[in-house]
Amino acid sequence: MNILVIVAHPDDPEFFAGASIAHWVKRGHTVRYVIVTGGDKGSDAPDMTPQKLKAMRVIEQREAAAALGVTDIAFWDYIDGELANDLLLRRDIAREIRRSKPDIVVTTDPQTLHHGSRGINHNDHRMIGMAVCDAIFPASNNRMYFPELLGAGFEMHYPKEIYFAGPTAPNFWVEVSAEIETKVAAIRQHVSQVKDPSGIEARMRANTFRLLADGRVEYRAAFRRVML
Ligand SMILES: [Zn+2]
Known about the structure:
Number of strands: 8
Radius of gyration: 17 Å
CATH architecture: 3-Layer(aba) Sandwich
CATH topology: Rossmann fold
Helix content: 25-40%
Bound molecules: zinc ion
Strand content: 15-25%
Shape: globular
CATH class: Alpha Beta
Distance between the termini: 15 Å
Order of helices and strands: EHEHEHEHHEEHHEE
Largest sheet: 8 strands, mixed
CATH superfamily: LmbE-like
């Protein structure tokens, strides 16, 4: 399978779907990332600048992806915190879908406004999820949408499935017991973003923990899976 991960920020692939990405890479699937913004507002340090942070986060993202076995990464140049589900973004996504022709697109769930009763889901995570939906249907597979793409040689393409990460209403799980440690190792590469490195593993295990009827413990990552 050809899997395209489109997310707002450097570190989103690992936080939202890192163990599953490692799981897919291990099984021979091809995974490409598109990181839409520079993540250039992701710091409170008084001496940090957006330019410095953006450069750091490209390096962190490459190292984190490499820990999961992913080397194919596109960095787009949208501004962190300012993503809008507009025609420019949709056209860029439609072009990317037509170019890389994924079977599966992974993005963040636009319906998740808050994480249960704990915290608001970043606007960019919602915007990119919505823009991915709108770029795929109907634009990626309809010649009338963005005719300039067809003129530039980007033939229509329709993926088979979307997996929404961080879902409010999951309906699909990837069994990732063997990949939790790989995910933690990848997240640790995002040095500028991780305030409590020692607590990551416990948090990741708690998020995916499931006790089976026979008493065994399994770790599984949740998605909302939509067949197209
Ligand atoms: Zn993010």
